[in-house]
Amino acid sequence: MYPIATRWAPFIALFVLLILVYQCATPTQPSGGPPDRTPPQIEETEPATRTTMFDGDRIRFHFSKYINRNSFQTAFRMEPDLNIRYDISWRRRTATVRFEDPLPDTTTIIFTLGTDLADTRNNRITAPFQLAVSTGPDIDEGKITARIRDARTGRGKEGERIMLYRHPVDLSVGANYVGESDTSGLVQFQYLREGKYKAFWLDDRNRNRRWDREREAAQPFSTDTLVLDREGEADLGRIFIIRADTVAPVLQAVGMLSEVRLRLRFSEDVEISEDAHISVYLEDHTYATDAVPLFVDPDNPNILFAQARDPLPDEAVYHLEMQGITDAAGNPADFDIEPFPGSDEPDTTFARYIANESRFGAAPDEPIVFRYAKLLDDSPAILDSLIVVESEQTHQPWPHAEIDEQFLKVYPDGEWRRGENYEIRVWDESRMEHVSIQPRILFDDELGALSIRVEEPRTDSTRHRARLVDP
Fold it and tell me: DSSP letter at 399?
C-alpha cells in the first residue's frame, strides 16, 4: 500500500541503529541542566588498595564520570620509580593499566593519580589518589607529611610537587617518590619503606622528577633529611614558596594622548626601575627622541604613561626601544610591536601629584621624593608653592628642594631632626590645592636586620635575587 516507505524502511532502521551505536560509544557527559562542577571520583580499583602478594599484570580504575584520557596519562605514575613500561586502555569509564615488564618481588608499589586528573568537563580531583599493593606478604607503612604555603598570601598551595629520594641520593636521576599538595597545601607520602630520605620542593616543569638546575627552581625544607623507622611517621614542616616567573611582559599597544604623551599597555602589570629609559625611532630606525617613563596607573598596573622630550608629529610613524621596565619578577619587557602614528594634539597635562616615593621611609640625610604625572621643567609653581612645616614653624617657599624630571625632591636643612613633627604640602595643579604628607624618617635605632641564607651555595656565577614582598 506504501511501496516507497516499504522500500526505504530497512535503510531508515539501519540509519537509526548507527546513530544509537555512535552515541553509546562516545564518552560524553549528559547535556542540559546547570554546569557540572563536581570532580570525578574513583569508585573502585582492581585490585583493592593494600592488597598483598599481588602477582597480576594489570590494574584497573573505575570512575564515577567520563575521564579526559590525556589528563589520566599525565596524572598517572608508579612509585618508587621502577622504570616499568606499561600500556593504558579504556572501556567507557574504566582505565586499565597493563604492565609490559614484570613487577619486582617483595616490593610495595604505589600507583598514584595526581591532581591533573580531570573529567571531560575539566573538573579536577582535589587530592591525589593512591592505590598501594605489595608483591610480598607485607605493605610498607612509613609516612611523611609536609605543608606548602604561598609566600605572598600564607595560604596553602595546591598542585605543588615534593621530590623524595632514598639515600644514597643521586640528583642526576629521578626522585624515588613524588608528593603532590592538595587544596589545603598538604603533601602526604604513604606506604614508605624504613630508611633515610631527602626531600625538597621542585618546580618540576617537564615532569621528569629530576631537578634541571638551569631551568627549574628548587627549595629545601628546614629539615630536608630524615630517618624513617618501620611504620614510623615524620613531618617535614612547612615551606613558603613563590613560583618563579620567567614570562616577560609584552608591550601590546601604544597610544598617543598628545604630541608628547604616550600610553603604553602591557600584557601584565609592570614596574619602573631607576634606570628605566625609552628611545623613540622613526620607521626607518632613525633616532627621533627619548621618552621618560612617568608612572604606572595605580588602578590598571599594566598601563604605563610616558612623555617624549620632543613632539612626535602625526606625519610619521614610530617604534620604541626600552629598558628598565619589568614585571614584579624582574623580567624585562618585550617591546616588539608594530609602528604607531604620532599626534599633533597639544599637550595640556597638569602637574598632577601621583605618589610619595619615600612612603616606606627616608634616612635623616635623604630627600623625600614625590612623583608627578608630567615632566616638571615648565611647572615653576610646584617649587614656589611648596610648604614645609616643622612642628610649629611653617616655611614657604622651602629653599632645599629641586625638580628632577617628573620628581620633586625635598631635602632636609642638614638632616631631618628627631622629635620634630614634619608635614610637607605639595601642589597639585589638577586639583588646584595642596596635598599634605607626613614623611616617615628612619633613624638608626629604629632599623632592624634581614638575614638571608642560601641553602645550597654554588661556586659559579649564579646570581640570586631577593625580593621583600609587602614590606
Answer: S
Question: Which strands, in side-by-side order, build the sheet including 161-166?
Answer: 177-180, 161-166, 195-202, 218-228
Count of H-run helices and E-run strands, the chain = 3, 29
Cβ-proximal residues to 378 (8 Å cutoff; 6+ apart), any chain: none
**What distance in Å separates the CA atoms of residue 102 and residue 113, rounded to the nearest whole number?**
21
State the pairing for strand pair 317-326/271-282. Answer: antiparallel
Taking the CB of residue 442, how many other CB atoms lie within 10 A of it?
15
Q: What angle do CA 453, 454, 459 make, to 5 degrees?
A: 135
Name which of 67-71, 203-207, 356-360 the model is least confident about: 203-207
> Residues 200, 163: contact at Cβ < 8 Å?
yes
**DSSP letters spanning 118-131:** BBTT-PBPSS-EEE
Domains and CATH numbers, the chain: 38-136 (2.60.40.1220), 140-244 (2.60.40.10), 251-341 (2.60.40), 353-446 (2.60.40)
DSSP 12: H
pLDDT surpassing 80 at residue 243: no
The C-alpha cell at 205 is 616543569
How do residues 415-432 score in pLDDT, each as one tens digit? 999 999 999 999 999 999
**In the structure grid, which three cell numbers stand for residue 28, read together?**
560524553
Question: Smallest Cα–Cα separation from 129: which of 67, 40, 257, 246?
Answer: 40
Instruction: Return d(Cα 79, Cα 109) in angstroms, integer.
Output: 6
Helix, strand, or coil (residue 159): coil
Question: What is d(CA 54, CA 132) in angstroms, rounded to the nearest whole number?
Answer: 10
Strands 108-113 and 58-63: unpaired
pTM above 0.85, yes or no: no
CA distances from 93 to 7, 26, 43, 60, 90 (A): 40, 11, 10, 10, 7
Q: Is 61 exposed, middle or buried (CB count within 10 Å of its CB: 0-12, 13-18, 19+)?
A: buried
At 175-196, the pLDDT tens digits run 999 999 988 999 999 999 999 9
Mean pLDDT is highest, among 216-220, 244-248, 357-361, for 357-361
